[in-house]
Amino acid sequence: MQTGVQFWIAFNAGVLVLLALDLLVFHRKSREVKWWESVAWSVGWICLSLAFNALVWHWKGHQKALEFFTGYLIEYSLSVDNIFVFVLIFSYFKVKPECQHRVLFWGILGALLMRGGMIAVGVRLVTRFEWMLSVFGLFLLVTGIRMFFKKDEEVDLENFVVRFCRKWMRRNWWRATGQC
Fold this sequence. Notes:
Radius of gyration: 20 Å
Number of helices: 7
Helix content: over 70%
Mean pLDDT: 81
Shape: globular
Largest sheet: none
Low-confidence stretches: none
Strand content: under 5%
Distance between the termini: 48 Å
Order of helices and strands: HHHHHHH
């Protein structure tokens, strides 16, 4: 039983509407997000996901709903480590508390778009050139081995990309928004 294209279009449109509401309505002005507010938003998003899971159960049955719920729990538990990454990035770049929601929002949106693009390119490459799967696997293996043997090495974050983003964002982003 395949899911139709209409469903995926509606699903993605719904996600885009929710993201637009979050940025343009609920968090239109930059301000520091309080702890209790972030808990309330988290509970709200979890409830929305559970409601979606109920729709999956209604339309596709209990097996698909269980698969969705299992995947959701795994993804949610794996995303907890992202909190530490966000804290490190915010402290390294000295992002003001009132700007963190906006920076996080655009960072996650950019990551989703880049991930989608990379998946699309990767699928196309693997479909067209089957041997590329071995190249990707070898790349991951070599990267993992290098990470294992470079344990105590200092990481220099001041590279070309960081300097370019810092300069471009300082000049354009903060000037355009007038807030952060």
